[in-house]
DNA sequence: GCCGTTTTCGGCCCGACTGTTTTCAGTCG
């Protein structure tokens, strides 16, 4: 079940979307969007707030507070239900298709009776859109491509939502009497960027109470199937969960089997066969006679195959078994290795929290250094000015003594222009402690131009970090077309770090590209790109991507001490 | 609908891109 704030966020966002689709006042819709975001990121639980308390949330006024209070009291918002009655839910879902906004969704519904993404795809294939005002020859093609993009990740759940769900499930099932072990496995344990379903494994003498506990959870929408060893449900958020219960003595073999990946397991099984053994989810057995060798722990299973334990994030058959055989497994970077965050925002631009709130939260995370990197002026909508930036720097300097162990760095997130230039001239850039530079526009340049602009950004002596290099948004927007190897070579040559952006919507660079970049000798940062205090915890997801890219703490500059990082940030002095 | 060293009305993140137009609407960041 999502946090109550998240439920309210979703309802307010739905209300805003429906206002947009029905052609209501755009500013009113925007006000609800803003309120939705503010509630979602509000650190306190809204459950304990009354209408007055709700109005303390910035962006929530009288009208929104009343609606939320009504929801908290009755579970319903009549104003929302009225709008829902006018517009089928599929019409709103169509606006999730890249290229389809509220106006087009309404036109498609009103003029062609289309009420779902599936019907939309069908109508395009049947050439029913031509002739509709505002839709030309290329529209259908573009929308179909958008639907394709949506479906590629459609049915898959982002890492943060899946992790939160899995942690709740494990907590609930661990509390069931008779449950001796419980953990999540599958691609979530390997920390893939999206997961198709959530696999939970548990041990108990009697599986029935665990199966019953799962099916009775309040957020179960459907029981897909239930037997003595396996139960599958679907949550009200549409995520499938498979629970498997095994005897405690088989825990290790089952955990290996259900963690995967399939390719990793096939390789393990092949190794077993060569040793006269057979590996399954029930254990490692001798082929002759069928005696069980081991199955109680993962350590034992790997050891019996002549291997050290292999971290789940490496189990993709990308050379980890060979490395393990040669005793060359990397010592993977851990979240606890991170000493700071070098890419964060405040409400000076598009963040939700104040500078002080962000700094306090960073201090509570135990960091030794922390950079504020609000947007630079070329991202016009953020309305940055030199004066605002300098005033923030002053404010940050005044906070310097607030947390004794936390060094505050003043930075910015620059915009890499189409030609590779950035927002400010060298003399202004020199005033920052750290500069992240990212692509925020011109996503459709050809490969040569994209490559050129990124290399030029690396060559800028004031650019320390390239942020979210490919600019992809999972399930929403593909990566830009760029020669990554050429950019990695430039980053390595110029001493420019490449970011592993930890936002679950981005996770950019992707794991396999991290691996490639590492081979070029690139250094990395693992940053939150936080726009709210709660998002400062995002590096837990970026760490997964970094581990899947085989990174060690040595590869990641924000695990370094300040003394060492300071040297790295003096890039201009090194050349 | 929200908000105020623009303060109770009148603004509100602005501009580029795309495909459709022939002067612009819709979408997006």
UniProtKB/TrEMBL annotation:
Repair polymerase that plays a key role in base-excision repair. During this process, the damaged base is excised by specific DNA glycosylases, the DNA backbone is nicked at the abasic site by an apurinic/apyrimidic (AP) endonuclease, and POLB removes 5'-deoxyribose-phosphate from the preincised AP site acting as a 5'-deoxyribose-phosphate lyase (5'-dRP lyase); through its DNA polymerase activity, it adds one nucleotide to the 3' end of the arising single-nucleotide gap. InterPro entries: DNA-dir_DNA_pol_X (IPR002054), DNA_pol_lamdba_lyase_dom_sf (IPR027421), DNA_Pol_thumb_sf (IPR037160), DNA_pol_X_beta-like (IPR002008), HHH_MUS81 (IPR010996), Hlx-hairpin-Hlx_DNA-bd_motif (IPR003583), NT_sf (IPR043519), PHP_dom (IPR004013). This is DNA polymerase beta. SUPFAM superfamilies: DNA polymerase beta, N-terminal domain-like (SSF47802), Nucleotidyltransferase (SSF81301), PHP domain-like (SSF89550). Gene3D superfamilies: 5' to 3' exonuclease, C-terminal subdomain (1.10.150.20), Beta Polymerase, domain 2 (3.30.460.10), DNA polymerase beta, N-terminal domain-like (1.10.150.110), DNA polymerase, thumb domain (3.30.210.10), Metal-dependent hydrolases (3.20.20.140). Its cofactor is Mg(2+). Residues 340-418 form the Polymerase/histidinol phosphatase N-terminal domain. GO terms for cellular component: cytosol. Residues 52-71, 92-111, 127-146 form the Helix-hairpin-helix DNA-binding motif class domain. NCBIfam families: PRK08609.1. It is found in: Cytoplasm. Its EC number is 2.7.7.7, 4.2.99.18. Keywords: DNA damage, DNA repair, DNA replication, DNA synthesis, DNA-directed DNA polymerase, Methylation, Nucleotidyltransferase, Sodium, Transferase, Ubl conjugation. GO terms for molecular function: class I DNA-(apurinic or apyrimidinic site) endonuclease activity; DNA binding; DNA-directed DNA polymerase activity; phosphoric ester hydrolase activity; zinc ion binding. Residues 3-316 form the DNA-directed DNA polymerase X domain. It catalyses: 2'-deoxyribonucleotide-(2'-deoxyribose 5'-phosphate)-2'-deoxyribonucleotide-DNA = a 3'-end 2'-deoxyribonucleotide-(2,3-dehydro-2,3-deoxyribose 5'-phosphate)-DNA + a 5'-end 5'-phospho-2'-deoxyribonucleoside-DNA + H(+); DNA(n) + a 2'-deoxyribonucleoside 5'-triphosphate = DNA(n+1) + diphosphate; a 5'-end 2'-deoxyribose-2'-deoxyribonucleotide-DNA = (2E,4S)-4-hydroxypenten-2-al-5-phosphate + a 5'-end 5'-phospho-2'-deoxyribonucleoside-DNA + H(+). The keyword ATP-binding does not apply. GO terms for biological process: DNA repair.
């Amino acid at each position: 079940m999502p946090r109550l704030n998240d439920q309210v966020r979703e309802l307010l966002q739905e209300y805003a979307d429906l206002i947009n689709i029905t052609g209501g006042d755009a500013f009113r819709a925007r006000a609800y969007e803003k309120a939705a975001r503010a509630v979602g990121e509000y650190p306190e639980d809204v459950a304990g707030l009354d209408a007055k308390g709700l109005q303390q949330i910035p962006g929530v006024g009288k009208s929104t507070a009343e609606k939320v209070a009504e929801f908290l009291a009755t579970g319903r918002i009549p104003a929302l239900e009225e709008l829902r009655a006018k517009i089928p839910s599929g019409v709103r879902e169509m606006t999730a298709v890249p290229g389809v906004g509220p106006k087009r969704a309404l036109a498609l519904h009103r003029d062609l009776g289309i009420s779902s993404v599936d019907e939309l795809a069908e109508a395009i294939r049947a050439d029913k859109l031509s002739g509709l005002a505002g839709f030309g020859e290329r529209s259908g093609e573009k929308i179909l491509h958008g639907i394709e993009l949506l479906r590629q990740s459609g049915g898959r759940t982002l890492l943060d939502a899946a992790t939160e769900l899995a942690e709740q499930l494990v907590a609930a099932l661990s509390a069931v009497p008779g449950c001796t072990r419980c953990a999540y496995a599958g691609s979530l344990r390997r920390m893939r960027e999206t997961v198709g379903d959530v696999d939970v494994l548990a041990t108990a003498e009697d599986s029935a109470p665990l199966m019953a506990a799962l099916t009775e959870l309040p957020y179960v929408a459907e029981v897909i199937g239930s037997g003595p060893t396996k139960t599958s449900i679907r949550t009200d958020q549409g995520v499938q969960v498979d629970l498997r219960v095994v005897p405690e003595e088989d825990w290790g073999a089952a955990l290996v089997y259900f963690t995967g990946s399939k390719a990793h397991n096939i390789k393990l099984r092949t190794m077993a066969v060569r040793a006269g053994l057979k590996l399954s989810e029930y254990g490692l057995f001798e082929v002759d006679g069928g005696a069980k060798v081991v199955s109680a722990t993962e350590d034992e299973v790997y050891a019996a195959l002549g291997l050290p334990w292999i971290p789940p994030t490496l189990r993709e058959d990308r050379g980890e078994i060979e490395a393990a055989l040669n005793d060359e497994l990397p010592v993977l970077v851990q979240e606890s290795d991170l000493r700071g965050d070098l890419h964060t925002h405040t409400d000076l631009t598009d963040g939700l929290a104040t500078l002080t709130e962000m700094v306090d939260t960073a201090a509570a995370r135990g960091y030794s250094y922390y950079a504020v990197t609000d947007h630079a002026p070329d991202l016009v909508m953020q309305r940055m000015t030199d004066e605002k930036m300098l005033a923030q720097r002053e404010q940050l300097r005044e906070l310097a003594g607030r947390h004794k162990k936390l060094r505050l760095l003043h930075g910015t997130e620059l915009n890499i222009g189409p030609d590779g230039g950035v927002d400010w001239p060298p003399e202004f850039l020199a005033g920052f402690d750290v500069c992240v530079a990212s692509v925020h526009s011109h996503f459709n340049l050809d490969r040569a131009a994209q490559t050129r602009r990124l290399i030029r950004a690396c060559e800028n002596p004031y650019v320390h970090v390239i942020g979210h290099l490919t600019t992809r948004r999972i399930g929403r927007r593909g990566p830009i077309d760029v020669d990554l190897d050429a950019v990695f070579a430039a980053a390595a040559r110029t001493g420019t770090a490449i970011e592993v952006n930890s936002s679950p919507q981005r996770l950019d660079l992707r794991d396999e590209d991290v691996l490639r970049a590492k081979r070029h000798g690139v250094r990395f940062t693992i940053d939150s790109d936080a726009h709210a205090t709660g998002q400062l915890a995002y590096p837990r997801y970026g760490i997964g991507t970094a581990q899947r890219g085989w990174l060690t703490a040595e590869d990641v500059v924000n695990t370094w001490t300040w003394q060492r990082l300071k040297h790295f940030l003096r890039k201009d002095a090194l050349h």
